[in-house]
C-alpha cells in the first residue's frame, strides 16, 4: 500500500511528527539541555502501515495544525482532495504537471492553493535509504542524493514572495530588448486562432501594458502575484472548452495531427497550425 510519509517528509502538528510507520513526539526538554530540539524526539510505532486513507492517519490529519509531506505523485489527485476536506494548512511536494489536474487548478485559480518558495528551476534533491539504479547525472553516490526535475511545493500558507510583482517590460520594449528570439524583432505577439488572447511563451516576456488575455506557461505560477494578475483559466481539454475555445476545423488535422479541441492553436508564418504546450490564461489587473 502507498504510504503517506516518505523519508524526511513528515506530517506534524505542534508536538508530533511522523514518518515510515512511526510517530515522533517533540513536546518537552527530555535531556535537560535547556532547549527543545531534535535530541528530544521520542517515538512509537504506528499500528498500521501509514496509508493516508486509513482511519489511523485520518485521525492524525484531523489533529494536525500543519501537514508537511511528500505524497505519492500517482495519488496526488486523491491526496489533495483528502487534505483539502480537512481544512488544514499544508506544505506538500508535487509534480509541476499537477497544476493542470481538474482537482488542483480550480484551487489555484481561486487562491485556495498556490506554489511555495523553493526548488529552483524545479530541481529537487532527495536522500534515499537504499541504493537503486538511476541514469547518469541523477544520482550522486558521494552525497546519496537523487535529483528529480519538475518538482514544486503546493501550499495554502502565505509567504512574502507570492506578493512580489513581476518586473516586466512594455510590449514595445520586449520587441526591442527581449532575450528571446521568438519575441525580439517582432511587431506584434502571436494571436491564437481559436481564442481572443495572445501567445506569450516565456514568463519574462509578459508585456506589462497589454490589457487583454494572455496565454502563459504553467511555470508562470511560480512567480504569480495575485495583486498583479488574475487567472482566467487553463486551456486544456474540458477546461478549455468551458472557457469557450473554439473547436479546430477538421481539415487542419492533416497539417498538424496533434490538434485537440479544448486546446489553443495559432498559425505560424508558413500557415501551419501550431499547438503550444499547456497554457494558463491570465490578465493584468487594472
Characterization of this structure:
By secondary structure, the chain is of the alpha+beta class. A hairpin with a 5-residue loop joins strand 15 (about 265) and strand 16 (about 275). The strands form five sheets. It has a four-stranded antiparallel β-sheet, with no helix packed on it. The chain has a four-stranded mixed β-sheet with strand order 5-6-11-7, with no helix packed on it. The termini are far apart. The chain has helices at about 55-65, 75-85, 105-110, 170-175, 235-245, and strands at about 10, 15-20, 20-25, 40-45, 65-70, 90-95, 115, 125, 140, 145-150, 150-155, 200, 215, 230-235, 265, 275, 280-285. The chain contains five helices and 17 strands. It is elongated and about 70 Å long.
The helix count comes to 5
| β-sheet strand percentage | 15-25%
Shape: elongated
Helix and strand sequence: EEEEHEHEHEEEEEHEEEHEEE
- Identify the strand order in the major beta sheet: 1-2-3-4
Low-confidence runs: 1-19
Q: Compute the CA-based radius of gyration.
A: 23 Å
Could you give the count of β-strands?
17
Termini separation (Å)? 49 Å
